[in-house]
Specification:
Elements: E1 3-7, E2 10-13, E3 18-25, E4 32-39, E5 46-51, E6 57-59, E7 67-72, E8 77-82, E9 91-99, E10 107-108, E11 112-117
Parallel strand pairs: 2-11
Antiparallel strand pairs: 1-3, 3-8, 4-5, 4-9, 5-6, 7-8, 9-10, 9-11
Length: 118
């Protein structure tokens, strides 16, 4: 089973950038679709971005002008580059993995906290 571990979160000021990473261990994750989710305090978990095995990506409309998702299959790392952060981006960020022909996510990381202050 693939295990996922996020890193790169932290506390930043509004307008700054962060890059989150999600490292995978286990068997070959190149054949899986990956995603980022986030959950702010008191809110439901929100899908942020998907990336397919060929690198094709989809980012939720609310952040697609500021966030970029990518993957390095050789290093088994998923990235989320976040720019011009604002306090509404404060959340726990999670990466997740699924078979590309299924909708259910089968592995989740523990999350990395992003806190943006104004």
């Amino acid at each position: 089973q693939v295990q996922l571990a996020e890193s790169g979160g932290g506390s930043v000021q509004a307008g700054e950038s962060l890059r989150l990473s999600c490292e995978a261990s286990g068997y070959d994750y190149r054949y899986y679709c990956l995603a980022w989710f986030r959950q702010a305090p008191g809110k439901e978990r929100e899908w942020v971005a998907d990336i397919f095995t060929d690198g094709t990506a989809d980012v939720t409309y609310s952040v697609q002008d500021r966030f970029n998702v990518s993957r390095d299959n050789a290093k088994k790392v998923l990235y989320l580059q976040m720019a011009r952060l604002n306090p509404e981006d404060t959340a726990m960020y999670y990466c997740a993995l699924r078979r590309c022909d299924e909708h259910q996510y089968i592995s989740w990381g523990q999350g990395t906290q992003v806190t943006v202050s104004s």
